[in-house]
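Appendix B. Extra example for self-study. Work through it before the problem class; the solution is given directly after the inputs so you can check yourself.
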Amino acid sequence: MQAVVKEPVVRQQAVGDLAARRDTAGVSGTASRTASLLWRVWLPIPILLLLLDTTFGFYFWKILKVSRRAADYGYQFQLDVQRLRQPKAAGAVRVVAVGSSVTGSFDAYQVEGLLAASTPGVQVHRLLLPGIKPSDTRIFLAAEGEALAADAIVLVVNLVDFLNPSFERDLKEQVRYVLPPWHTLRDRGAHMPFSGKLDLVLAGVSDLYRYRKLVRSALRDHVKLAIRWGRTRAPHGAYGIYPDAYAAQQFGLPVNGNGAMDLEYYVAPEWIQQRGRVGLRFSVAGKLLAQGVENTPGWKTIRLPVSASDHAILDVHADGIWVPRASDAGEDVRPLSVRLRQVPANVAGGGTRPWRYPPVDEREVDAFLRFGDPGDPRFAARWNEVLQSDSPFAKRFRRYRQVKVAVRDQPFHPAGEYAELERLVRDLSARGVAVVIVNSPESPWILNEYGPSPYYRAYLAFLAELAAQYRDVTFHDLSDVLPAVDFNDWHHVNYVGAAKLGPRYAQFIDEALTARRRRM
Amino acid sequence: MLFNSIAFLVFLPAVLIVLGVLPRRLRNPFLLMAGYFFYGCWDWRFLGLLALSTVIDFTAGQLMATSSEPQRRKLVLVCAISANLTILGFFKYFNFFTGSFVALMQSLGLHVSAPLLSVVLPVGISFYTFQSMAYAIDVYRGDARPADRFLDYATYVAYFPQLVAGPIERAGHLLPQIVSPAKLTAERVNIGLMLLLLGYVKKVLIADQLAPEVDSIFAGASHLSAGVLLKGAYLFSFQIYCDFSGYSDIARGVSELLGIRLRLNFNQPYLSQSITEFWRRWHMSLSAWLRDYLYIPLGGNRHGTRRTYRNLLLTMLIGGLWHGASWTFVVWGGLHGGYLVVERMLGIGRALSRPSRGAGGWALRVLRTLVTFHLVVLAWIFFRAPDFASAFAYVSGIAQLTHLSAVGVVPLLVAAAILAIDVPQNASGDHTVFLRLPWWVQSPVYATACFAMLLWGGGDVPFIYFQF
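Solution. C-alpha cells for the complete assembly:
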C-alpha cells in the first residue's frame, strides 16, 4: 500500500500550489482545453439527446418488437395502445378489455370471431398489464380514453386487485411509466416522495426517459438478433428469430443437423372442439419439410428430413393461435392450439434447449402444461405436489392463496381500490361507453376457503350494485364457472379455461352493445 | 442523496447556478447548507452527528493552536481522537465487538449475555470521522494551520462531493481551497465534465449492470460450479472497482465544477504489478491516511524487519476493520497484509524498481499484473461474502476446478471495457487524457455514453462504499 512503502512521509503543505494539486489529482491542463473545445465537445450532446427525445413518437413505435408479448408486458401494452390510437374505421365497433394478469383469460381473437356475426365491423382488443389496479386503470383511461375511442370496455377484475390499502403510495414498477406521468402526478403526487415526483416530472417532459426501458429492450433484442442473424444467415422470421419457442403463431427450434429430427406436438382438445382444425407447416431456411392439417386432438409425432448442413432453425407455423397471459416475464409457458417439443431423447443434455425456453425445471413445465390426460386424477395430485414445493412458481401461488384467504376475517369497506373502480365506471358511463365488469374465475381449490365468507359475498354484492347504479354497465361473476384443472395456478386460467370463457365474454359484450345500441 | 439519483441531477445544477450568482462571502454558507441538505436527504437525524464531529475537531484545533504547552496540546488531541473514535465505535462497532465477545465466551463454555443495539449505521461515518480526525492530528503536528473560521471548517467537513465516500481529504489540501476556491475556467469545466462522464460510465454502465449477476452468484454459491464462481469473483472485482472509482471520479468532477480540486483516489489499480503497488493505486486517500496516522506512528519500517512486518499486518487488519464491522473484512485486510509481508520478504518491491525491457520484460510485466490481480480477486471473495463459511465455501468451490468454461466471455468483455479507460490514463498519467482526442471523435462517443446511461441508468443502485 502507498502508506507502507513510501517513507519518509512527505507531508502536505498548508496551502499546496496548483501544480502540486494537479499532480495529486491525476489531471494535467493542456492548451487545447479551450472554451471553444468545451462547446464543440459537450454542447452537441444535449442537442442530440433533445432531438432524439422530441422526435421519439415518430420513430420508436415503428420499431418491430421482436420479443414475445410476455417478454415485456409494459412494452407490449404501450405498443397495443399506440395501435389503438389510430382512428377507427367508420362503422367499426371497438371493444377493449383492460386489466391485470387475469385479463389473460380474454382471448381477443376468439371473442372477435364469435362477435363478428352479431356485430359487423367489431374490433376486439386486449390491454393487459400484470399488476395494474382499478386506480391505475382509471388514471390510464382518463388520459387515453378519448384516443382509444372504445364503444365497450371490459374490465376483468379479481379480488386481489382490490387488496392494497395504500395504493396511492404504491406505484408498481411495471405500471409507473405505462401510466401517463402528468395525470399520475396530479392524482398521486400528494402521496409520493420527492424523488418519485421528480421521476414523474422527468417522465412527463421526456419520452426518452419515460420509455427508456422499452428502448433498452428493443435495442437489446435487435442487437441480439442481428448477431444471431450474422451467425446463421437464416433468412426466415425477424432476423431468423421467433417470438417464442412455444407460444406464438410462428415458433422455432434449433436443428440438430443429424439427418432427421423427431418432434412431438400436442393438439389441444379444446381447440379442436372449438375451431375444428389447425394447419401446420414445418420448414428450415425457407425450405418446406412438411405440412398438414390436424383435426383430431392429442399427441402426434413427426420425423422431419433435416440435412446435416441445416444448422439452422426449424420454423413451425400454426395457422391458429391463442396467446394467453403469463404471470411474469420469462415464464410464459402456456401453449396455444398446438404445443411442440422435440422428442425428449433429442433434448437430453440441455445443450439443445429451444430458445427462450422458460427458465424453470422441465418437470414443472410438464406439470403445468398438463402433458398427458387433463382428466387424469393423478394430474391433480402431481400439480398439488408441485405447488407445495419451494419453486418460484409454487411460492407465488401460495402467496395468492394467502392474500385471498386472509379476507375471510376482514370487514368489507368499499374504500380504496373499490372507490377507484367506482370512479372509473362512473367516468366511462358518463362518456357513453358500455362497461362490462367481469369477476374472473377462481380455482375451486381455494375459492371454497374464502368464497362463502361475508367479505367475498359483500365484494360480489358491491360489484353488482355498482353495475346497477350506472347506465350501460353490467356485471358478471365468473368466479365459480371453471374446474381446478382449467387453471395454471390458483389465480390464472390456462388455455383450456380461457377457451371455455371466450363464448361467455362474447355473450356479455354482445348484450352490452345491443343494450347500448337500443338506447342510442 | 445518491450521485446516480434523479434528485442529484437536479441538486447539482441548482447548486452550481446559485453559486454562480451568489456573492463570494455567501459561497461557503451556501456550500455548507448544500452539504447538510445532501447528507440530510439520506437521514436528517444524523446531521447532529456530523455537526458534533465538526465541533469536536474544530474546538480541538483552536485549543491546540492557542496553547504552546505540549502536554496540554497532547491532552486535547487525545480527547479529540477519543471522542471521534467513541462516536465511530458506538455506531459502527458496538454490536460487532459485543457479539464477538459473547461468541468467544460461549466458545469457552461461559454463558454471558450482552445488549445489542438497534442502531442504523450513519452513512459515510468512517469517511468524515477520519477526515475530521486527521485535521486535529495535522494541527497537533503542525502539518496544517487551524481553520480561522468555524464556517470554513464546517464546510470542509460537510463538503458534499466527498462527504459520504471520500476521497478522505487532508485539511492542508482541501481547506485552503474551501477558503479561496479557484476561478471556474473552461479548462476546469472540461475536466469536471470529463471526470463526471467517466465516473457515471463506470458506475451506471459497468458496476450497476454487474450487480445483479454478482449478487445472484454470491447468493447461490454453494450450488454453483467453479467456473461460475470464478466468474462471480471476477465480476465483483470489476464491480467494486467501477463502483468506487466511479464515485471518486464523480466526486472529483463535481468538485472541479465548484472550483476545488480533490485528490486522486484511484490510479488504475488493476494494472499494478505487485500488491505493494496496488495499495499505491487503490483507495489512495485511505492508504495515505493509514500510512500517516497509523503505520508510521506504529514505527513503520524503522525498527527492524519483524516490527515492520507486524506494523504492516496491523495496519492492514485495522484497514480491513475500517471497512465494516465484520471478521470477513478483517480477514480481507489480513490477506492483504500477508501479501505485503511476503512481497517484502521476497524483495518484490525492489525487483520492480528495476525496469525490465524487451518482449520478455513486457511478458513479465503482464504476468506480474495477472498474478497481482488474481491475488486481489481472491481477497475480494472474503470482502464480498456475507460470512466466513460462505467465503470458504466459495473459495473451495473454485478449487474444485469444475466447468471452468462457464466463466464465459463476460469477464473478458468487462475487463476490455475497463482497460479501454485505464490503459490510456495510465500511459499518459492523465485521467482526462480523452480530452486530447479530436472533438469530432469525443462528441459522438460521449453522446453515445450519455444515451446509454439514460437507458440503463435510473436504478438508484447505492454505491457499495456508502455502507462503510
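Self-check: The mean pLDDT of chain A is 74. If your reasoning did not lead you there, revisit section 3.
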